[in-house]
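Hi P.,

Sorry for the delay on this. The queue was packed all week, but I finally got your sequence through. Input first:
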Amino acid sequence: MMVRTGLVGTGYAAKKRAEAVLADGRAELVAIAGQSPERTHLLAQTYHAQAETDWQTLVSRVDLDLIIVATRNNLHGLITRKALMTGKHVVVEYPLSLEVSEARDLVQLANAQGKLLHVEHIELLSGIHQTIKEAVADIGIPCYGRYASFKGEQPAPQKWSYDAQQFGFPLIGALSRVQRLLDLFGPVETVRCSNQYWAENGQPIPLSQATAGYSAVLCSAYLTFETGLVMDLVYGKGACLWSRERVFDVHGTQGRLVVEPHGGSVISEEGQRTLTVGSRRGLFAKDMAMVLDTLEQGTPLYIAPETSITALVVAEAARRSVQSQQVINVQAI
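Then the structure:
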């Protein structure tokens, strides 16, 4: 069965998705829609697909089986809903929605329609995640950790990922960080969070006034897991930050695990053991192949949409903590 596919988006993830579809002989990229007509036509020409005027027209086409949603975050829920209602399977980049209630409704809609809804979390397929997952057992019971990622950009780019309304609350827009932690350590019990946006002139922007673009953001969440583990999750990007780094550092009863993009180590009483981190290449293609396996053979995917919603709930707890300046119980959401 040839899976006839429509793609919404023209950015980096959309291009990787287009390449993944073309690389698998079981799918055909039929049409593309994006925010910019120029970029849409260029991408369609590059990948030998039809260019549609807008996403509404694309998802309404009767000749498509699957819609891939790889556009700005605030449109994910709306496009996914329309695609499901018109009888399409859907693959959507995280987050499924910026709102927990809408995300839950979409899972129910997919089940009612009998259609596949896959929320992409390729970070779980990466070599670095597999390295962490295998090595974390060597440090005993995890007690405290810090997972920090910084992406300094001078100047900050003027695009949707630096817009509070389109990207969403930082840990919702960057949901992969939360999902990685849940996959490794299980449920989160409580969240305490602080968040700061900065304008282009370097002045801070209160969360209540962050309704448009910003030049930098720093979000820091303190997560308490049901196991007793406490984790500092820090996400920052933009003009106020002058480094590009990603560090995963966990202390346990029998040692410490430190992993960065190019390597890592386990430190214990026996000394230090060097870890080799696997490649991050080919993850979109791997994810796409798994989707097609599911459509053809019913093979379970590596993540269910309900699992992504669990991460979304934790990120929403962080947002509510910033608003209320209180510790939020995740089970209350």
